Amino acid sequence: MDAQGPERPRPYVERAGATFETVVDQGNLLGGLYGFKAVPNGYLIDEDGTVRYVKLGGFDIKKAETRDVLDRWLAGELSPDGDDVAVAVSDSDTASQLFAQGIANYNRGDTVTAVSLWRQALSQDPDNYIIRKQIWAVENPDRFYEGDIDYDWQREVRTAEEKAR
After folding, report:
1. What is the pLDDT tens value at each position of the chain, 165 positions in all?
2. Which of 24, 27, 1, 10 is nearest to 105 (CA)?
């Protein structure tokens, strides 16, 4: 999910050498549909539209367990049962509505209003990392789009925000 569009994360996908289709959800449609509040997530959906596997947070193709899941999926060995499948959730709360309005403003070029709406959304849902990281990425692009993502900086900012609450 990146409200700034697919061009921002493209260098990371290219650097990873991904040979599979990678989709950037600029409007957070999947977050609204499935109710997740952080990324990266992995969803494996078959040709019939059946969700075969879900990993919320920490989906990393470099991890052996992730590659094992992908190998099992490609071999047709994953079935939609147990912990592998997420339940779809409708997410039409105030935070989601404000976040969507912010995305619309961002897409119209009004970054100031977008960030203001996102801050209002975050005040409604303070544990939503998708909203938080969109604010951070717009205000601090060097921490997200120039070289490696600065996770240490994110932890420091998050700790300071928690203390301020």
Report:
1. 899 999 998 888 888 888 878 888 999 988 888 888 888 888 888 888 888 888 888 888 888 988 888 888 888 887 654 344 444 443 448 999 999 999 999 999 999 999 999 999 999 999 899 999 999 999 999 998 888 888 899 999 999 988 887
2. 27
Contact 88, 80 (CB under 8 A): no
Distance, in Å, from the CA atom of 2 to the CA atom of 39, rounded to the nearest integer, reads 10
Q: Which residue has the tokens 């932890």?
A: 155
Phi/psi-derived region of residue 21, left when phi > 0, alpha when psi is between -120 and 50, beta in every other case: beta
Residue 55: closest CA among 47, 67, 99: 67
Domain boundaries, given as residue ranges, for the chain: 10-84, 94-164
**Residues near 144 by Cβ (< 8 Å), separated by ≥ 6?**
8, 133, 136, 137, 150
What is the three-state SS of 24-57?
A: CCCCCHHHHHHCCCCCCCEEEECCCCCEEEEECC
Where would I find the H helices in 53-110? 64-74, 94-107
Rounded CA-CA distance 43/54 in Å is: 5
Question: Which pTM was predicted?
Answer: 0.73
- Listed in sequence order, the residues at least 6 apart from 101 whose beta carbon sits closer than 8 Å to its beta carbon are 117
